[in-house]
Amino acid sequence: MPQKTLADTLAARETLYVNCGHPMCCKSTKLDIAALIERLGPDHGSMHDDLVDLFGCSKWLTTPSSMTRT
Ligand SMILES: [Zn+2]
Fold this sequence. Notes:
The protein is an alpha+beta fold and about 70 residues long. The protein has one domain (about 5-70). The protein is about 25% helix and about 15% strand. The chain has three helices and three strands. It has helices at about 5-10, 35-40, 50, and strands at about 15-20, 30, 65-70. Strands 2-1-3 form a three-stranded antiparallel β-sheet, with no helix packed on it. The longest helix has 8 residues, at about 35-40. The mean pLDDT is about 85. The structure holds zinc ion.
């Protein structure tokens, strides 16, 4: 899979969700790509490994286990 940056993701109008890894929670959080670009810069990667560490679940304090790209 080719590496995509946040700018690529925004340009493609893709939507990213990170999914909580806790089996009792499984909360899915939609990412605000524009806000991420302001925070991380447009050249930051938008792949799973680039982003999941940035989002913890406030309820279970777990790191999201997966990311969905739509
Ligand atoms: Zn959770």
